[in-house]
């Protein structure tokens, strides 16, 4: 592959990564508004679905670029002190570590929760691993498997 093509792919991959990061930020803001009760359930679901669809499209494009430039290499080593260095890592570096293992993070709120209801106890997160296992936080920092889901 010509150097110009690789450089073009690298530029496009960086652009796609930035766009994915911006979508993640938008989803975070939307979710915070929803959990605080300032965003109605219907608006949250619509906005979330639109953002996730755009994100999926960008991820497919990014994966296509990465596949085009792929070189067989060993998986990157994850440092043992990951919890200590994680806050200092860039979102792009964090994504490189999480992409092979994290399929989704789902935010749930009980259906009987009223708009405007505040409090962490009314909202919970579920992490879905790429192999289909789901995890919930049952104590601060302690994630427990709940069930095996069909891989996404």
Measured distance between first and last alpha carbons: 32 Å
Reported for the largest beta sheet, the result is: 4 strands, antiparallel
Alpha-beta classification: alpha+beta
Low-confidence stretches: 70-76, 148-152
The H/E string reads HHHHEEEE
Strand order of the largest sheet: 1-2-3-4
Q: With helices defined by DSSP (H or I, 4 residues minimum), what is the helix count?
A: 4
Estimate the strand proportion. 15-25%
- What level of helicity do the residues show? 40-55%
Radius of gyration: 18 Å
Question: What is the count of β-strands?
Answer: 4
The average pLDDT is 76
Sum up the overall morphology in one term. globular
Your description of this structure?
The structure is a single chain. The protein is α+β, with helices and mostly antiparallel strands and 152 residues long. It has a domain at 1-72. Helix content is 48%, strand content 18%.
């Amino acid at each position: 592959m010509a150097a110009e093509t690789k450089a073009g792919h690298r530029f496009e991959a960086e652009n796609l990564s930035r766009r994915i990061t911006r979508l993640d930020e938008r989803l975070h803001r939307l979710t915070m508004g929803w959990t605080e009760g300032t965003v109605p359930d219907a608006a949250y679901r619509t906005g979330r679905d639109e953002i996730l669809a755009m994100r999926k499209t960008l991820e497919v494009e990014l994966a296509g670029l990465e596949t085009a430039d792929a070189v067989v290499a060993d998986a990157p080593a994850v440092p043992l002190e990951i919890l200590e260095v994680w806050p200092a890592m860039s979102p792009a570096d964090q994504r490189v570590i999480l992409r092979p293992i994290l399929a989704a993070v789902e935010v749930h709120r009980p259906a009987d929760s009223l708009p405007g209801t505040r409090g962490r106890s009314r909202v919970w997160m579920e992490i879905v691993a790429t192999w289909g296992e789901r995890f919930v936080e049952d104590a601060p920092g302690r994630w427990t498997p709940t069930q095996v889901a069909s891989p996404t």
